[in-house]
Every structure is written in C-alpha cells, then in structure tokens.
Amino acid sequence: MRNILSNKWRPECFDDFTGQTEVVYSLKNILKNKYIPRAFLISGSYGVGKTSLARVLVKCLNCEIGITCAPCGNCYCCTSIINLTNPDSIEVDAASKTKLENTKEIILSSEYKSFKNRFRTYIFDECHMLSLSSFNFLLKILEEENNNNIYILVTTNINKVPDTIKSRCVSLHMKRLSIYDIKSRVNYILNVEQIKIEDNMLDKIIFFSHSNLRAIMNTLEKFSGYKNISDDRLN
What is the pLDDT of residue 136? Predict the structure, then answer.
C-alpha cells in the first residue's frame, strides 16, 4: 500500500524540520550535554511538526548507538518508535483521555511492562485538554519521581497549561512557518515525487490551507496521481 504524502514525508530527524532552527538548536545542546530534563513542553500551531519533533526526540534518547542528535533509524528502538510499536514509548491523545483515572492508568500500568529502552517516554498530545486533576497528578509525578521516565507534553494552546507544569518543563515553541519555508519544503517534496504544479496553484493551496504544512500535503495527495497539477484540476 502506498504511503500517503503527509506520512511519507513526516520528519524523521532534526534536519527534516523546516524553519525551526532555534528549537532544533536547543534540543541538540541538551542531547550533546547529556543532561536530560524530566519533562519537555512543545507548543505551536497546527501542522508545524510538534508530534513529529517529540518522536524524533524519543529516538535521539533511545537509539542503540547512545544518546545522540542523529539517531540511526535502523535499530530496534528507532524502527519501533517510527512504527508506533515500542512498548516503552507511550503516546496519549489527551483530547480523548482527559480524566484523572485515564492519566493514572496510562502512567501507572506502564510501570509493570518490560523495559527495553534507555528511557520510558510519554507523549501527551494536546495536553492542554487534560483535566485539572490530571495536571495535578502529573505535577506530583514530576516533583517526586526519580527514575528514567520522561514526559513530553505537546499543545496547540500553551495558555491552558498550568504555570506549575510549565515551570517544570523545558519549553520549546515551534514557530509558524513562513511562506518561503513552506514553499521550499513543498517544492523539494514535489521534485522528489516528480509532481509538477503551477506556481499560482501552489499559492492557492497554501492560502486555503492557512499555511498548515500537513494540510497542504493532504491537499496535494488528492492530486498526486496526475503528476501535473493545474488550475482545472484544483477546481
């Protein structure tokens, strides 16, 4: 089965991220110093690559070559994290699991599973949707735990994350991509995929996708079979 463009071109290493120089620089410094904080808070608008960045960070922490800024992508830890099958890399859709009992069950039940990675990681996607009770439970864990668990909180609305949580996380804000950055990335992908598109059509897609790179890729996916995207096809 052919992989859709948005998944095929999901960033797999730091070099794949467009327009996020400051965030990547900060993470590389942390990894090079090997002083790993207990919690990270990744914020930014939709489609800038927050969850992808979290997964790359998990690979950097657990790659079999050691803590690194350039994970191999081939070892068990890297491939299982990419395939979402790694038992020690837990991803939580906080928008659908907002309650305290959900958070407790996710964190406490995983403690009894086999431990294969260097770190057990928890990615809470859309963490601002967690209930106050869930945040308080998480705060207690961040204050008291002393183990190899690392928590990566991802949000599109950092203002809804309690200050007590923010203060215990390394905060990483992924900025909204410029039109230049978006066009550079999309044109590179189109060139590799051998898809031709008229410049004014690409401008339209970017405009109607509100500069959301993932949305742009999903729109291009609809026309990828044509290899030549014109105004007629878009209409």
Answer: 93
CATH number of 5-174: 3.40.50.300
- 107: helix, strand or coil: helix
Per-residue model confidence as pLDDT tens digits over 41-82: 999 998 899 999 999 999 999 999 999 999 999 999 999 999
Question: How many Å apart are CA 131 and CA 224, to the nearest integer?
Answer: 41
CB 51 within 8 A of CB 156: no
pTM: 0.87
E strands, the chain, are: 39-44, 89-93, 120-125, 149-155, 170-174, 196-197, 228-229
CATH of 179-234, one of 1.10.3470, 1.10.8, 3.30.310, 1.25.10: 1.10.8
